[in-house]
User: Fold these one by one.
Assistant:
Number 1:
Amino acid sequence: MSLEILTYSFMHRALISGIAIAILCSVVGLFLVLRRYSLFGDAIAHSSFGGIALGLLAGIYPLWTAYGVSIVSALIITRIKDKFNISGDASIAVLLSSGIAVGLVVIGFSGGFTIDIFSFLFGSILLVSVDDTVLILLLTGIILIVILLLYRQILYSTFNEEQAKVSGVPVEKINYLIVFMAGITVVTSIQLVGVLLISALFVIPNVTAIMYGKGFKQTAIISMSFSVFSVVVGILISYVFDITPAGTIVLLSIGLLAGTMGIKSAGLLSKN
Amino acid sequence: MLRAVEISNLTVQYPDVKALDDVSFVVNQGDFLGIIGPNGAGKSTLFDSMLGLNTKYKGEIKFFGEDIRKSKNYLKEIGFVPQKPIFEKNFPATVSDVVRMGLRNESDENKIDEILQQLWIHELRNRQIGELSGGQLQRVFIAKALVNNPKILILDEPVTGIDQQSIELFYSILRELNSKQKITIIWSSHDLDAINQLANHVACLNRTLFFHGKSEKFFSDDELVKQYSEASMQEHMHHH
């Protein structure tokens, strides 16, 4: 692999955005995985597909409409879940299919714009602009700061809602905040891996990290490291071999998961 | 004597059953109150109402003279140990992570070590909670409840599935918290002997409150104890 590729400015943008998204997805994803909301990222991503189609149809920058639609549908689904006592997995299925349905109908009305849609479905990290990169860094920074400030409350309500309530944690508000941040995170990450593979970034590095059986902060750090490794190496490999970055990144993180499983079954991770 | 808790005419009506019927009692500061009653007697409903988890009740609950409907500030003075600590088995949290969750003032890190030492679990501080035994886990949750120096400790039958040695240690910890640190304790339990040894007041609950007073008075009155045992037995048979 020639080092020349590291001198291209599009590659700088891709790597900087990719690292930011990797960190963001692994942190937000850790809370989702522990709340048994692993597929929530997927559901928001699918609903954002509807938002993207609406944006393309209306001639608005599709990611803006995607942000709007994703956040609104994430909050609505949380409300519906609480109010009508629908289980988490069923509400995710509803959200997931409604987003795609809206997208398909809108595409039908517009006579089809397949090329643009394709880049949203599978990501286009090598094409991110300077503006995109700045937005990605800004949103990542804001969300990470919010999580650091409310770390104890978010962790406690993830661990056990009832006990957190008794300790005076505003659990409902924290739940909405998590869902809101997940909505923003998903749409921000669409440029990296596309709508279809988002949940891989949320779930796989965290499932891998949890297997190491460490404390919360160490688990978060392991997950972030795996996530950043897969994204950086994935982007570079995919450029060199001219294959899709999204698929490469996800396969690399699956490789890390498989490796961890191997180490664990060989008994190398058991404590005691 | 300062009143820590004052419950007046507490009634909780569920769709099919009256869980609590006109229950009134007072807990003074420094008291050690044992609440006994058969399964389904309304103990958990009582605790849920006291802790603000159930707000659909009639009557009044006061902590330190303040109606809990008016402010949630009283929760700062309460440590709660749940019946069964429910969490994901592989939740990535160490013992100190869990105790830290209870810590309101996050700069007070030393407090965590202090409380872990006091409860004989300091050597477990970096262990993952999923690996602990029932007795160790129970002490971790007591540590979490105590880390803010609460004035009142509320425990919901926290000895199910715990070995005898851990239970003895747990009882001696409770005794010390009440006698040396003057923490008011409200404890629901099935273990009449333990209540007899530890608690200075007893409340007998079976949807209505059919006894509340000094524990000597309860345990010296064979008729009362028998009555409680019968109620308990009936309920037991009803459940099977």
Number 2:
Amino acid sequence: MLAHFAKGIARAASSAGQGSRGAVVFGQRAYHEKVVDHYDNPRNVGSFDKNDPNVGTGLVGAPACGDVMKLQIKVDEKTGDIIDACFKTFGCGSAIASSSVASEWIKGRPMDEAVSIKNSDIAKHLSLPPVKLHCSMLAEDAIKAAIKDYKAKRAKAGTEASQSEPVAATA
Amino acid sequence: MRWLGSKSSTLRCALQSHLRFYELVSGDFSSVNEPIVRSFTPNLDFGVVAQSLAHDLQEFDRSAATATAGSFFLGRESDRTAKCVVTSGRMGLESSSSGGSCSHDLAGGRVRVLGRVAGLKRRFSSTIAKRVEAKCWSCEELSTANPFFICSSCKAIQPLDQDVDFFQLLSVDRRYVQDLKVLERKYKQLQKFLHPDLSSRKSKREQVYAADQSAQVIKAYYTLLDPLSRAQYMLRLGGVNIDEEGTIHDPALLMEIMELREEVEEATDADKLVKIKEQNKNKMLQCENALKEVFQSGRIMHAVPLVQRMAYYRKIIEEITRKQ
């Protein structure tokens, strides 16, 4: 683990050498201002009722760093647009900032578009150093998991509805 | 990381040594068709290969007979050669025809195992006798000491050998269950003659070696002392890199962790925090006990979810400590 960590430092140091603006202070790695902003003022923190049929919940984790991330979406069932999103993340600043950005970006977007958000887009937006790329990966996985959960829920509700229809007709 | 394999009825290990190329082969190849390729990280010895091999075979084919094979492509810069003697009988192969013994030279760098494997029966616990023939850099005296810290003849401190794993370094058995008092004793014994302060009158070269050796011993001690890092280290020795495991989706575990983290976040009084901390310590203990069984049985892949779970509990405890 130490070797892994040291590699990360070395990589961060080499990227610092290339002059990534604002990411390095006096040779010591610091968070980019955008990360700090999202960390201090996270957008859309909260929870939706996970039993709401219009809500999809993505729960993902990165055991290596002990991060756990919950991202929820509220979907307009007619248009398939994500009308609202919220998240709750326990983890490092980069993980919180990544999920905050993700929740902002997916709001108002159709699900098909939201699912195409790449972790590299989030990482680029936040200027995450290489060692923190997995945090943005977690956010991407959370979006995908939330949409998958929503679709699974709708499919299940659909089959249940079709099953209950004949019962309703006979009653 | 899947092994491919098919059955073979006999096992006979033979050693074919060439310059920097050693092959451990099983006897009967007639019924073995498919090659097995697996990459391992450095600091690996045959016991580990055998153990993970046994595990995968168990998964692959429980009814398979016996036989194992592997070719080791080795490369290293140093002239030091470690010899590892593995007796197949000792490795617990349940085969009467597996009386042969094999040996191969250990080396650093990446070890690629290419072999043809048939089956192994059930339990597979390896015992390894390791013999080292190392040459002192100062007086060129040969030594069989492993790990080789100090030359017995000229008392020169030797360079750190990266191929020696933490268990070997502290001369304890490679297993998950460890007596922490023994570990501490071994650690202190080593530091008594490796501590850099003791070599201040020695040559610059030896000072560097002593510092390296001493640092490695500290690293080894603290890695093996902690039940979580010990498990992670054993997984790494077995070729499973848990640090690079990606996202997990286990809803039951994640929900539990999420709730625990929320509980910690919302807790305002100190008593509550102490209580949650105790609960988490108990949960870690449960994981540790489960890991003991898993490592004992040699099914190291089963240790992965336990280690992940344990890492989460550890994180919660750290969070509580930070808050207290």
